[in-house]
Amino acid sequence: MNLSPSAQATLLMTSHFGKTSTDGPRPLSIVEWGRFAMWLKDQAATPEDLLRPNVDELLQRWQDKKVDAARITQLLSRGHALALAVEKWQRAGLWIITRADPDYPMRLKSRLKTLSPPVLFGCGERRLINDGGLAVIGSRNASDEDLAFTQTIGSKAAQRGISIVSGGARGVDETAMLGAINADGGAIGIVADSLLRAATSKKWRNALMDGRLVLLSPFYPEAGFSVGNAMARNKYIYCLAESSLVIHSGTKGGTINGAEENLKKNWVPLWVKPTHDKEAGNASLVAKGGRWCESDTKAIEVQSLFVSRNTPDIQEQETQTDMFALNSTITEPLKGSVEPSLDHRSLPRTNPKTVRLDDEPTQCEAATVGSVPIDFYQAFVLEITRVARKPVTTDEIVEGLVLHKTQVNTWLKRACDEGLVKKLKGPVRYQFVGEK
Fold it and tell me: Could you tell me if 107 and 239 are in contact, meaning their C-beta atoms sit under 8 angstroms apart?
């Protein structure tokens, strides 16, 4: 498990390495890390800069009411605990990816932006995490009829080469995933607790070894069950998929809350299985924007659940990336930690093919691919040709490209000076006009 300095720093700042307790510093939450990461960008710094000997000079400029510099320093001092944890997880077959890694799920990054998990722990076939698929969600205590329907959906998805995305929990989640796996299909499981135990579970063992299953978790791999984590992981199930199907929902609880959040955020289409259960929340979900699916297991076609999309084209969203992936420098590894290999990064382009950087950039706007110089400002201009065909605001550009507003304003000013972009007023908007 070759962790880059960026990955090491992110883990130190955001992850537990043992059972949670009141002793020691509390890792940063996703919101706290997002706020700190944006500050790092404003300072023209990256996570790996936190591992440098002069990090105290950098942190002197950090001012935050909820996260003080002392807490950050304590988190960064856990290098030995990190090394021991990584060794243990590696022996169990786990791997780690962070937001700066090129194979981090782009659907999470494009849909959740700064609220996407900074670290994901996983085991199994990594390539599956960007394949999308059908999210299948439902109750732990589903009826036999619902479970039979779910098993059929999993099997039919496998026959069509569609992966099942679910939560791995008892009931609907487990049945959908096993239905796909037993029909030689693929499955993506988002685990809310005990990933380390799930990785060695007999029910998943063969699929993990055969490359037909990947288990992911944004939580400490040895964490026990908590309602908060179970509720939080629902968004990741939807955001990793291309469409979704609720088998059975109660009127309260994680299933209906997750489905309602998906409808509100418009991540993926929501289909709902018809039910005769008057206590179910299925009809409520349809009233709020979901759609009834075919109830006959023989007649339903899984591919029909993908016909109508009401979300932006994910291929266009997947060209977006994180600025930390553009501006990283290899530093010395933490003492006692795994030796990092050269870390590759992704350059945003209108062509969705990834450009790997063999030589890391030494400043924000310049890098090389092999011996060919790359100017990140030019990459920004390429993206502006797409997002600013019609007048757009600065905030719309920031959201569309997942960049920091300060950087966007700098590059917009330069593009205006060069006559590539026209600045409109009332309100202020920008439109690409092309080279003169």
Answer: yes
